[in-house]
């Protein structure tokens, strides 16, 4: 057996891994890949989908993103502090059925990589954890839940506990699946955190970063557990839209 095969959790139907490499090594063997980026990409996706909108993931916010937005007849989200940005609070007041390009180095990039796996790609967060779990149970097959994490200044992965907790919230409801040890650890993180989600998101590194930058409302919106029934699925346009359930 090749060394890489040892880390693919192939004997289990529900798996958990981190970041870009997790998508490539584990997601490639799955029927469904779930991308989790609680602070803030997948929470933003949930907010837009809840307004019957469409989200086009994009890796970098640069001139190519502007061209891409024009091509898709969509609004390009800017940096935090702009009217529309990678901020759940900024998206809460957008009109219904808005088409938006949402650049992100974490959740959006993981989405682009997950598309190459060939299966269904879903965006999930704490807000829609149960809705996503129900969809997966109905769909059947193997599933990999990816915690996107954040980036250290040198570009390497910084594991983010809010993503592991949300991943665990989904995996906890996949009772008919066989969970890998990695998935079981994510479930354990969620079960520990379940009664204090708001406090933990406020106190964790990613939450503190946003609060100190003046975005406490983003953390509050991301902390709302199971307030949404939206299941964002990557469609043929490579955009997230609500699944037909």
TrEMBL record:
Q: Which cofactor does it need?
A: Mg(2+)
Reactions catalysed, semicolon-separated, are:
(2R)-O-phospho-3-sulfolactate + H2O = (2R)-3-sulfolactate + phosphate
List the InterPro entries hit by this protein, alphabetically.
ComB-like, ComB-like_sf
Q: Does the keyword Hydrolase apply?
A: yes
Q: Say if the entry is tagged with keyword Hydrolase.
A: yes
**Residues of the signal peptide:** none
Molecular function, one GO term:
magnesium ion binding
Which Enzyme Commission number(s) are listed? 3.1.3.71
Q: Which keywords describe this protein according to UniProt?
A: Hydrolase, Magnesium
Record-stated family? Belongs to the ComB family.
Q: What is this protein called?
A: Probable 2-phosphosulfolactate phosphatase
Species of provenance: Brevibacillus centrosporus
Lineage of the source organism?
Answer: Bacteria, Bacillati, Bacillota, Bacilli, Bacillales
């Amino acid at each position: 057996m090749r060394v890489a095969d040892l880390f693919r959790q192939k004997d289990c139907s529900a798996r958990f891994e981190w970041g870009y490499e997790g998508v490539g090594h584990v997601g490639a063997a799955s029927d469904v890949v779930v991308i989790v980026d609680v602070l803030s990409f997948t929470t933003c996706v949930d907010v837009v989908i809840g307004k019957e909108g469409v989200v086009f993931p994009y890796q970098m916010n640069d001139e190519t993103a502007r061209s891409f937005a024009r091509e898709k007849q969509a609004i390009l989200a800017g940096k935090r502090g702009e009217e529309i940005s990678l901020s759940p609070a900024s998206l809460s007041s957008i009109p219904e059925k808005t088409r938006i390009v949402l650049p992100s180095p974490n959740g959006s990039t993981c989405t682009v990589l997950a598309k190459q796996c060939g299966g269904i790609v879903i965006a999930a967060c704490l807000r829609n954890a149960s809705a996503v779990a129900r969809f997966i149970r109905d769909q059947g097959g193997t599933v990999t839940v990816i915690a996107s994490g954040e980036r250290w200044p040198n570009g390497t992965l910084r594991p983010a506990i809010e993503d592991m907790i949300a991943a665990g919230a989904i995996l906890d409801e996949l009772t008919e699946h066989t969970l890998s040890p990695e998935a079981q650890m994510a479930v354990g993180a969620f079960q520990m955190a379940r009664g204090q989600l708001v406090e933990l998101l406020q106190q964790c590194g990613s939450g503190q970063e946003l609060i100190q930058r003046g975005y406490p409302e983003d953390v509050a919106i991301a902390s709302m557990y199971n307030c949404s029934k939206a299941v964002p699925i990557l469609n043929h346009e490579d955009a997230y839209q609500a699944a037909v359930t």
